[in-house]
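[#protein-structures] MJ: dropping DUF2188 domain-containing protein here for a structure pass
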Amino acid sequence: MPVQTLYIVQQFEKQGRKLVKGRALDFRSAAEAVARAERDAVRFAGVVAVTVTVDTETGETLEDPVILAQHGEVPEGIIGG
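AK: finished. structure tokens for DUF2188 domain-containing protein:
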């Protein structure tokens, strides 16, 4: 089973009182994702950097996502409830 670890930064923007997902960006390392989340923290209502391991054949998530960095407002339950 081919496995890949993904490093993702999810941006959140305010639309009125609601938080909505912005862009999701992929990075090659945890350090790159954390650095981008820190830079984005001043531009967006919220941002979270996560890592997740997936089976590349099935797309199945093999482990619960892990938060690497979180800044500002992020919806509750964004990771694992």
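MJ: nice. The mean pLDDT is 92.
AK: one more thing. The beta strands are 3-15, 18-27, 46-55, 66-72.
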